[in-house]
Amino acid sequence: MRYRTLGGSGLRVPELILGAMTFGEQGGVGAPLPECRRMLDLDAEAGGNMIDTAVNYRGGASEEFLGELLRGRRESFVLGTKYSVSRNPADPNAAGNHRKNLRASLETSLRRLRTDHVDVYWVHMWDRDTPIEETMRALDDAVQAGKVLYVGISDAPAWVVARANTLAQWHGWSPFIGLQVPYSLLQRDVERELLPMAEALGIGVTAWSPLGGGVLSGKYTRPDGTAARGRLSADSLSERDHAVARVVQEVADGLGTTPSQVAIAWVMSRSRAVHPIVGARDVDQLRDNLAAADLVLPPEAVTRLEEATGFTLGFPGDFIAQNSPWVFGSALVAPDAAPR
Protein backbone atom coordinates (compact mmCIF):
# COMPACT_ATOMS: atom_id res chain seq x y z
CA MET A 1 0.00 0.00 0.00
CA ARG A 2 1.30 3.42 -0.94
CA TYR A 3 0.68 6.49 1.22
CA ARG A 4 -0.24 10.09 0.57
CA THR A 5 -0.84 13.04 2.83
CA LEU A 6 -4.54 13.74 3.35
CA GLY A 7 -5.27 17.10 1.76
CA GLY A 8 -3.07 19.91 2.98
CA SER A 9 -2.21 18.13 6.22
CA GLY A 10 0.86 16.07 7.03
CA LEU A 11 -1.28 13.06 7.94
CA ARG A 12 -0.14 9.95 6.06
CA VAL A 13 -3.00 7.77 4.85
CA PRO A 14 -3.14 4.85 2.39
CA GLU A 15 -4.51 4.91 -1.13
CA LEU A 16 -7.42 2.74 0.03
CA ILE A 17 -9.29 3.38 3.27
CA LEU A 18 -11.06 0.67 5.24
CA GLY A 19 -14.77 1.36 5.66
CA ALA A 20 -16.32 -0.03 8.85
CA MET A 21 -19.96 0.50 7.95
CA THR A 22 -20.38 -3.29 7.84
CA PHE A 23 -18.86 -3.84 11.30
CA GLY A 24 -21.78 -5.14 13.35
CA GLU A 25 -24.74 -7.41 12.67
CA GLN A 26 -27.56 -4.93 13.25
CA GLY A 27 -29.79 -4.93 10.18
CA GLY A 28 -28.83 -8.46 9.23
CA VAL A 29 -26.24 -7.61 6.56
CA GLY A 30 -23.16 -6.77 8.60
CA ALA A 31 -20.22 -8.79 9.89
CA PRO A 32 -19.75 -10.38 13.33
CA LEU A 33 -16.83 -9.40 15.55
CA PRO A 34 -14.51 -12.33 14.65
CA GLU A 35 -14.86 -11.59 10.93
CA CYS A 36 -14.29 -7.88 11.55
CA ARG A 37 -11.08 -8.76 13.39
CA ARG A 38 -9.89 -10.77 10.41
CA MET A 39 -10.71 -7.91 8.04
CA LEU A 40 -8.89 -5.34 10.18
CA ASP A 41 -5.87 -7.62 10.42
CA LEU A 42 -5.87 -8.18 6.65
CA ASP A 43 -6.05 -4.45 6.00
CA ALA A 44 -3.17 -3.81 8.39
CA GLU A 45 -1.08 -6.54 6.77
CA ALA A 46 -1.66 -4.91 3.39
CA GLY A 47 -0.39 -1.59 4.80
CA GLY A 48 -3.75 0.01 5.55
CA ASN A 49 -3.80 2.42 8.46
CA MET A 50 -7.02 4.46 8.15
CA ILE A 51 -10.51 3.40 9.26
CA ASP A 52 -13.77 5.18 8.53
CA THR A 53 -16.84 4.81 10.75
CA ALA A 54 -19.68 6.96 12.16
CA VAL A 55 -21.65 7.38 15.36
CA ASN A 56 -24.72 5.78 13.73
CA TYR A 57 -23.17 2.85 11.84
CA ARG A 58 -24.89 -0.39 12.86
CA GLY A 59 -26.62 1.46 15.67
CA GLY A 60 -23.25 2.20 17.27
CA ALA A 61 -21.91 -1.35 16.98
CA SER A 62 -19.30 -0.31 14.42
CA GLU A 63 -17.62 2.04 16.89
CA GLU A 64 -17.98 -0.48 19.71
CA PHE A 65 -16.35 -3.21 17.61
CA LEU A 66 -13.49 -0.90 16.68
CA GLY A 67 -12.98 0.01 20.33
CA GLU A 68 -12.44 -3.68 21.04
CA LEU A 69 -10.40 -4.44 17.91
CA LEU A 70 -8.01 -1.51 18.33
CA ARG A 71 -7.00 -2.32 21.90
CA GLY A 72 -3.23 -2.24 22.12
CA ARG A 73 -2.75 -0.80 18.62
CA ARG A 74 -4.84 2.36 18.56
CA GLU A 75 -1.97 4.69 17.65
CA SER A 76 -1.06 2.58 14.61
CA PHE A 77 -4.28 3.66 12.91
CA VAL A 78 -5.78 6.90 11.65
CA LEU A 79 -9.25 6.66 13.16
CA GLY A 80 -12.07 8.71 11.69
CA THR A 81 -15.71 8.92 12.73
CA LYS A 82 -18.64 11.18 11.88
CA TYR A 83 -21.51 13.01 13.53
CA SER A 84 -24.74 14.69 12.30
CA VAL A 85 -27.12 11.71 12.09
CA SER A 86 -29.66 11.50 14.92
CA ARG A 87 -28.74 9.50 18.00
CA ASN A 88 -32.33 9.73 19.25
CA PRO A 89 -35.20 10.53 16.85
CA ALA A 90 -37.31 11.81 19.78
CA ASP A 91 -34.74 14.49 20.68
CA PRO A 92 -34.55 17.42 18.24
CA ASN A 93 -31.07 18.32 19.48
CA ALA A 94 -29.65 14.81 19.04
CA ALA A 95 -28.99 15.49 15.36
CA GLY A 96 -27.52 18.22 13.19
CA ASN A 97 -24.22 20.06 13.08
CA HIS A 98 -24.73 22.44 15.99
CA ARG A 99 -22.44 22.67 18.98
CA LYS A 100 -24.65 20.70 21.38
CA ASN A 101 -24.96 17.66 19.12
CA LEU A 102 -21.30 17.82 18.21
CA ARG A 103 -20.26 17.65 21.86
CA ALA A 104 -22.66 14.84 22.78
CA SER A 105 -21.89 12.81 19.64
CA LEU A 106 -18.15 13.17 20.10
CA GLU A 107 -18.30 12.04 23.71
CA THR A 108 -20.43 9.06 22.66
CA SER A 109 -17.95 8.09 19.96
CA LEU A 110 -14.92 8.46 22.23
CA ARG A 111 -16.55 6.24 24.83
CA ARG A 112 -17.42 3.53 22.33
CA LEU A 113 -14.05 3.70 20.59
CA ARG A 114 -12.22 3.54 23.95
CA THR A 115 -9.94 6.40 23.03
CA ASP A 116 -9.33 9.97 24.19
CA HIS A 117 -9.17 11.45 20.69
CA VAL A 118 -10.33 10.99 17.11
CA ASP A 119 -7.79 11.54 14.35
CA VAL A 120 -10.31 12.85 11.80
CA TYR A 121 -13.77 14.02 12.87
CA TRP A 122 -16.20 14.33 9.98
CA VAL A 123 -19.38 16.35 9.61
CA HIS A 124 -21.59 13.63 8.14
CA MET A 125 -23.86 15.88 6.06
CA TRP A 126 -24.52 19.59 5.56
CA ASP A 127 -27.10 20.93 8.00
CA ARG A 128 -28.99 23.81 6.35
CA ASP A 129 -30.29 25.03 9.71
CA THR A 130 -26.97 25.40 11.54
CA PRO A 131 -24.72 28.34 10.57
CA ILE A 132 -21.47 27.04 9.16
CA GLU A 133 -19.66 29.52 11.44
CA GLU A 134 -21.06 27.70 14.47
CA THR A 135 -19.97 24.32 13.15
CA MET A 136 -16.44 25.44 12.28
CA ARG A 137 -15.93 27.15 15.65
CA ALA A 138 -17.27 24.13 17.54
CA LEU A 139 -15.01 21.79 15.57
CA ASP A 140 -12.02 24.03 16.29
CA ASP A 141 -12.89 24.00 20.00
CA ALA A 142 -12.75 20.17 19.89
CA VAL A 143 -9.36 20.39 18.22
CA GLN A 144 -8.10 22.87 20.81
CA ALA A 145 -9.32 20.51 23.55
CA GLY A 146 -7.21 17.71 22.08
CA LYS A 147 -10.21 15.45 21.42
CA VAL A 148 -9.95 15.85 17.63
CA LEU A 149 -6.81 16.21 15.53
CA TYR A 150 -8.24 17.04 12.09
CA VAL A 151 -11.69 17.78 10.68
CA GLY A 152 -13.48 16.88 7.47
CA ILE A 153 -16.92 17.11 5.89
CA SER A 154 -19.10 14.66 3.99
CA ASP A 155 -21.99 15.13 1.58
CA ALA A 156 -22.10 18.90 1.23
CA PRO A 157 -22.22 21.40 -1.67
CA ALA A 158 -18.91 22.76 -2.94
CA TRP A 159 -19.84 26.33 -2.00
CA VAL A 160 -20.45 25.31 1.62
CA VAL A 161 -17.06 23.61 1.90
CA ALA A 162 -15.26 26.53 0.25
CA ARG A 163 -17.00 29.05 2.49
CA ALA A 164 -16.24 26.99 5.58
CA ASN A 165 -12.53 26.82 4.81
CA THR A 166 -12.42 30.52 3.97
CA LEU A 167 -13.94 31.28 7.38
CA ALA A 168 -11.41 28.94 9.00
CA GLN A 169 -8.57 30.76 7.25
CA TRP A 170 -9.84 34.18 8.33
CA HIS A 171 -10.35 33.17 11.97
CA GLY A 172 -7.40 30.82 12.44
CA TRP A 173 -9.70 27.81 12.94
CA SER A 174 -8.92 24.27 11.85
CA PRO A 175 -9.95 23.87 8.18
CA PHE A 176 -11.48 20.83 6.56
CA ILE A 177 -8.63 18.66 5.30
CA GLY A 178 -10.95 16.00 3.89
CA LEU A 179 -14.12 15.77 1.82
CA GLN A 180 -16.14 12.54 1.76
CA VAL A 181 -18.38 11.98 -1.27
CA PRO A 182 -19.95 9.17 -3.30
CA TYR A 183 -17.87 8.50 -6.42
CA SER A 184 -18.05 5.67 -8.92
CA LEU A 185 -18.54 5.01 -12.62
CA LEU A 186 -22.26 5.13 -11.90
CA GLN A 187 -22.14 8.42 -9.98
CA ARG A 188 -19.70 10.97 -11.35
CA ASP A 189 -21.49 14.14 -10.20
CA VAL A 190 -18.54 15.20 -8.01
CA GLU A 191 -16.51 15.89 -11.15
CA ARG A 192 -18.64 18.97 -11.83
CA GLU A 193 -17.85 21.10 -8.76
CA LEU A 194 -16.71 19.11 -5.71
CA LEU A 195 -13.61 17.40 -7.07
CA PRO A 196 -12.21 20.52 -8.80
CA MET A 197 -12.88 22.50 -5.62
CA ALA A 198 -11.06 19.93 -3.48
CA GLU A 199 -8.07 19.85 -5.81
CA ALA A 200 -7.87 23.65 -5.94
CA LEU A 201 -8.13 24.08 -2.16
CA GLY A 202 -5.89 21.16 -1.21
CA ILE A 203 -8.59 19.00 0.34
CA GLY A 204 -8.26 15.22 0.29
CA VAL A 205 -11.22 13.24 -1.06
CA THR A 206 -12.37 9.97 0.47
CA ALA A 207 -14.79 8.31 -1.95
CA TRP A 208 -17.58 6.16 -0.60
CA SER A 209 -19.45 3.53 -2.63
CA PRO A 210 -16.81 3.18 -5.38
CA LEU A 211 -18.66 0.02 -6.47
CA GLY A 212 -21.92 1.89 -6.96
CA GLY A 213 -23.70 0.15 -4.11
CA GLY A 214 -22.33 -3.21 -5.28
CA VAL A 215 -23.66 -2.89 -8.83
CA LEU A 216 -20.11 -2.82 -10.24
CA SER A 217 -18.84 -5.75 -8.15
CA GLY A 218 -19.78 -8.32 -10.78
CA LYS A 219 -22.64 -9.90 -8.88
CA TYR A 220 -25.14 -8.77 -11.51
CA THR A 221 -23.01 -9.83 -14.49
CA ARG A 222 -22.12 -13.38 -13.49
CA PRO A 223 -22.70 -16.07 -16.13
CA ASP A 224 -25.22 -17.91 -13.96
CA GLY A 225 -27.30 -14.75 -13.62
CA THR A 226 -27.41 -14.91 -9.83
CA ALA A 227 -26.85 -11.92 -7.61
CA ALA A 228 -25.27 -12.03 -4.20
CA ARG A 229 -27.16 -10.71 -1.22
CA GLY A 230 -27.60 -6.97 -1.08
CA ARG A 231 -30.07 -4.10 -0.98
CA LEU A 232 -30.75 -4.22 -4.73
CA SER A 233 -32.07 -6.85 -7.10
CA ALA A 234 -31.14 -7.17 -10.75
CA ASP A 235 -34.68 -6.12 -11.71
CA SER A 236 -34.40 -2.87 -9.74
CA LEU A 237 -31.39 -1.63 -11.74
CA SER A 238 -31.72 0.74 -14.66
CA GLU A 239 -30.59 -0.14 -18.18
CA ARG A 240 -27.69 2.28 -17.72
CA ASP A 241 -26.65 0.47 -14.52
CA HIS A 242 -26.63 -2.84 -16.37
CA ALA A 243 -24.79 -1.38 -19.36
CA VAL A 244 -21.99 0.13 -17.26
CA ALA A 245 -21.70 -3.04 -15.17
CA ARG A 246 -21.35 -5.11 -18.34
CA VAL A 247 -18.52 -2.93 -19.63
CA VAL A 248 -16.75 -3.14 -16.27
CA GLN A 249 -17.08 -6.95 -16.43
CA GLU A 250 -15.75 -7.04 -20.00
CA VAL A 251 -12.76 -4.85 -19.12
CA ALA A 252 -12.04 -7.03 -16.11
CA ASP A 253 -12.21 -10.18 -18.23
CA GLY A 254 -9.80 -8.66 -20.74
CA LEU A 255 -7.32 -7.72 -18.02
CA GLY A 256 -7.66 -11.00 -16.13
CA THR A 257 -8.88 -9.30 -12.97
CA THR A 258 -12.20 -8.74 -11.18
CA PRO A 259 -14.90 -6.13 -11.79
CA SER A 260 -14.49 -4.76 -8.26
CA GLN A 261 -10.81 -4.12 -8.83
CA VAL A 262 -11.48 -2.38 -12.15
CA ALA A 263 -14.17 -0.13 -10.64
CA ILE A 264 -12.02 0.84 -7.64
CA ALA A 265 -8.89 1.34 -9.77
CA TRP A 266 -10.84 3.71 -12.03
CA VAL A 267 -11.81 5.88 -9.03
CA MET A 268 -8.17 5.91 -7.88
CA SER A 269 -6.99 6.95 -11.34
CA ARG A 270 -9.12 10.08 -11.48
CA SER A 271 -7.06 12.22 -9.11
CA ARG A 272 -4.24 11.90 -6.61
CA ALA A 273 -6.57 13.61 -4.14
CA VAL A 274 -8.98 10.64 -4.17
CA HIS A 275 -8.83 7.74 -1.69
CA PRO A 276 -11.59 5.15 -2.24
CA ILE A 277 -13.24 3.74 0.89
CA VAL A 278 -13.46 -0.04 0.57
CA GLY A 279 -15.86 -1.97 2.74
CA ALA A 280 -16.69 -5.66 2.87
CA ARG A 281 -18.72 -8.22 4.77
CA ASP A 282 -15.97 -10.82 4.82
CA VAL A 283 -12.24 -11.28 4.34
CA ASP A 284 -12.53 -12.59 0.79
CA GLN A 285 -14.40 -9.51 -0.39
CA LEU A 286 -11.91 -7.21 1.30
CA ARG A 287 -8.92 -9.08 -0.13
CA ASP A 288 -10.35 -8.65 -3.63
CA ASN A 289 -11.00 -4.95 -3.09
CA LEU A 290 -7.55 -4.24 -1.64
CA ALA A 291 -5.91 -5.79 -4.71
CA ALA A 292 -7.16 -2.79 -6.70
CA ALA A 293 -4.23 -0.80 -5.26
CA ASP A 294 -1.90 -2.70 -7.61
CA LEU A 295 -4.05 -2.42 -10.75
CA VAL A 296 -3.12 0.19 -13.34
CA LEU A 297 -5.77 0.55 -16.02
CA PRO A 298 -4.49 1.06 -19.59
CA PRO A 299 -5.69 4.27 -21.26
CA GLU A 300 -7.93 2.42 -23.69
CA ALA A 301 -9.69 0.70 -20.79
CA VAL A 302 -10.27 4.03 -19.04
CA THR A 303 -11.71 5.51 -22.23
CA ARG A 304 -14.06 2.57 -22.70
CA LEU A 305 -15.26 2.72 -19.11
CA GLU A 306 -15.93 6.45 -19.21
CA GLU A 307 -17.70 6.34 -22.56
CA ALA A 308 -20.08 3.74 -21.12
CA THR A 309 -21.26 6.17 -18.42
CA GLY A 310 -22.49 8.85 -20.82
CA PHE A 311 -21.42 11.50 -18.33
CA THR A 312 -21.18 15.19 -19.21
CA LEU A 313 -20.18 18.13 -17.04
CA GLY A 314 -23.15 20.23 -18.07
CA PHE A 315 -23.20 23.96 -17.44
CA PRO A 316 -20.91 25.76 -16.80
CA GLY A 317 -18.13 23.21 -17.37
CA ASP A 318 -19.04 22.18 -20.90
CA PHE A 319 -19.96 25.75 -21.88
CA ILE A 320 -16.61 27.12 -20.71
CA ALA A 321 -14.67 24.36 -22.46
CA GLN A 322 -16.56 24.83 -25.73
CA ASN A 323 -16.33 28.62 -25.81
CA SER A 324 -12.89 29.27 -24.35
CA PRO A 325 -11.10 29.26 -27.75
CA TRP A 326 -13.55 31.90 -29.05
CA VAL A 327 -13.45 34.01 -25.86
CA PHE A 328 -9.70 33.98 -25.22
CA GLY A 329 -8.21 33.41 -28.67
CA SER A 330 -4.42 33.37 -28.61
CA ALA A 331 -4.47 34.13 -24.89
CA LEU A 332 -5.87 30.65 -24.18
CA VAL A 333 -3.48 28.56 -22.07
CA ALA A 334 -3.43 24.81 -22.65
CA PRO A 335 -4.85 22.87 -19.64
CA ASP A 336 -1.61 20.95 -19.08
CA ALA A 337 0.38 24.22 -19.05
CA ALA A 338 -1.79 26.12 -16.59
CA PRO A 339 -0.50 26.43 -12.99
CA ARG A 340 -2.47 24.51 -10.36
Automatic annotation (TrEMBL):
UniProt keyword annotations, A-Z: Oxidoreductase
Highest taxon, organism lineage: Bacteria
Domain spans labelled NADP-dependent oxidoreductase: 15-308
Coiled-coil zones: none
SUPFAM superfamilies: NAD(P)-linked oxidoreductase
Record flagged with keyword Cell inner membrane: no
Keyword Oxidoreductase tagged: yes
UniProt cross-references to Pfam families, sorted A to Z: Aldo_ket_red
InterPro entries tied to this protein: AKR_Detox_Biosynth, NAD(P)_OxRdtase_dom_sf, NADP_OxRdtase_dom
Descriptive protein name: Aldo/keto reductase
Organism name: Actinoallomurus liliacearum
Lineage: Bacteria, Bacillati, Actinomycetota, Actinomycetes, Streptosporangiales
